[in-house]
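Q: Joint fold for the lines below.
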Amino acid sequence: MAAITLQKLNKHYGTLFHAVKDVDLEIADKEFVALVGPSGCGKSTTLRMIAGLEDITSGDIRIGNKVVNHLPPRDRDVAMVFQNYALYQHMSVYDNLAFGLRNKKTAEAEIKAAIDRAAGMLGLHDLLQRKPRQLSGGQQQRVALGRCIVRNPQVFLFDEPLSNLDAKLRAQMRIEIKRLHAEIPTTSVFVTHDQVEAMTLGDRVVIMRDGRIQQIGTPLQVYGKPSNKFVAGFIGAPAMNFIDVGVRSAAGVTSVEAEGLRLTVGPADASALAAYSGRRVILGVRPEHLMLGGGAPGLGFDARVEVVEQLGSEILLETRVGSASVTAARVPAETVIARGDQVRLSAQAGRLHFFDPETELPIS
Ligand code: ATP
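A: Joint structure:
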């Protein structure tokens, strides 16, 4: 069993910089957790503290049931995959894979069996005699993964391992990592700044900002019920639209209004917004929940097209509504549309988000 528990984990760099703030996180045995957030949010520092590569300032880290706060990395039974692969350049792929086990004085026959198995899983058999410089980036990253697998650790730690790969390879490696986790389920923590990577890989996603956890949840939870405006804007691509609106309730009908926009909200949103009548709130609506055309009554508005991005499968529209810019996705690719056109957009019922402008917390 290798659950990981972080309790009130803090990291200060010097006296001035507080990089990780009171992080509490429980990762279940065999769970795959993705740690995501913008550059500098403290995700790598958190991972490096779990690995033992960075001292902790305060708090506790448990792996299995053991407090590992001050254990050196080699005694934590974790294997880490780095962005730059960290392979030994002068050694063959086989020797790179064997290195950790030889250090542990494992018998050569056992090492060979472990390498055979890992090479089979990762398609490395034909590359075993090559040196890392004779491999592509994707192949090198597979070797780095293989090196972790042969060690059969309790925990895999990934520090942005796909960042140096091109988009297509990244997508392929994502699938390989997912397949690997299905074949040898091992507790895994995967750090990335790419929310698509986090969402597609993680059983759960942990979103960090300025050293603090903002939300922990399954991909569906963080997408559907973001814990604040930051998470709402960070998760999902293209990003959620935010529009400053006023709330009006009259004759039993609640609407939210801005220049060029008046949306009638459904009963659930109306009751959530009751306390905000006459005040301003932030309306959030995802581009994929805005459709071209009439849609549900009370949810349509006119927009002027500013940019048309043809993606082949669909069109992405950048539009202007009053003073707000609004992105709409899911416009059929064959739609004849050009900059300057006036279009009718409509929001999907039940897909509106509202945030308090001061606290940025969801209004629900
Ligand atoms: P990135 O995606 O850019 O790697 P990150 O979320 O992984 O970002 P960390 O590497 O954890 O961020 O760094 C968190 C903060 O701590 C950053 O502001 C960084 O500048 C700072 N930091 C990291 N290492 C040190 C260090 N050795 N000394 C001082 N400050 C540091």
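Q: Anything notable?
A: The chain has a mean pLDDT of 94. The first strand starts at residue 4 and ends at 13.
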